[in-house]
């Protein structure tokens, strides 16, 4: 399925169009990487930036312009901090990659709407392809090959790979429990080594 643009897609892969967001698919009972526990964890701006590979200025601008807003807690004036979900951070990293490859902001906005509408399991199986003018959703290797042979696909983003990258990065960073506000310390291997040394000493 294509996310944006006016071009015709190769057979199987459809371009994503603005205003034609997919219907949300039900999340699996045990979400891929993110079970119920993970859905109760949020990430503050600096953590989201580190995991997505973006600057805080980009994060702030994207939130203020509505490109990628935090789904857990927006900023309400001074003193409050935005809180991003795991899915938000995955979308932030994908937006960064789309921008780096020259996809237009309008097409990226449509892609973001599409990604937010899809179920968790759908995201891990999805590949986004683009020719710079249109973004396509591919859910099978055959669709990717069709696009490449048809000349439409110039680059691709395997959402599942981005998902795992973000998952690995966030596991070493601090999160926050949504219900209690408790800070969750990431499993940084260097921190664990320091704790073992302290116990031994």
Automatic annotation (TrEMBL):
<keyword id="KW-0238">DNA-binding</keyword>
<dbReference type="InterPro" id="IPR000551">
    <property type="entry name" value="MerR-type_HTH_dom"/>
</dbReference>
<dbReference type="InterPro" id="IPR047057">
    <property type="entry name" value="MerR_fam"/>
</dbReference>
<dbReference type="Pfam" id="PF13411">
    <property type="entry name" value="MerR_1"/>
</dbReference>
<feature type="domain" description="HTH merR-type">
    <location>
        <begin position="51"/>
        <end position="114"/>
    </location>
</feature>
<dbReference type="InterPro" id="IPR009061">
    <property type="entry name" value="DNA-bd_dom_put_sf"/>
</dbReference>
<protein>
    <submittedName>
        <fullName>MerR family transcriptional regulator</fullName>
    </submittedName>
</protein>
């Amino acid at each position: 399925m294509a996310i944006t643009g006016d071009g015709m897609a190769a057979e199987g892969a459809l371009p994503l169009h603005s205003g034609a967001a997919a219907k949300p698919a039900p999340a699996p009972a045990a979400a891929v990487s993110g079970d119920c526990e993970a859905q109760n964890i949020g990430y503050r701006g600096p953590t989201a930036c580190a995991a997505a590979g973006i600057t805080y200025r980009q994060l702030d601008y994207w939130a203020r312009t509505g490109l990628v807003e935090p789904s857990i807690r927006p900023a309400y004036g001074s003193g409050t901090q935005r809180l991003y979900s795991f899915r938000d951070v995955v979308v932030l990293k994908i937006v960064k990659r789309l921008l780096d490859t020259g996809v237009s902001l309008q097409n990226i906005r449509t892609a973001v709407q599409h990604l937010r509408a899809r179920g968790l399991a759908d995201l891990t199986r999805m590949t986004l392809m683009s020719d710079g003018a249109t973004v396509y959703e591919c859910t099978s290797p055959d669709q990717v090959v069709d696009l490449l042979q048809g000349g439409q696909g110039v680059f691709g983003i395997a959402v599942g790979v981005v998902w795992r990258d973000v998952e690995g990065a966030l596991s070493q960073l601090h999160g926050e429990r949504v219900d209690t506000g408790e800070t969750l310390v990431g499993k940084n291997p260097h921190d664990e080594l320091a704790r073992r040394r302290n116990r031994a000493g």
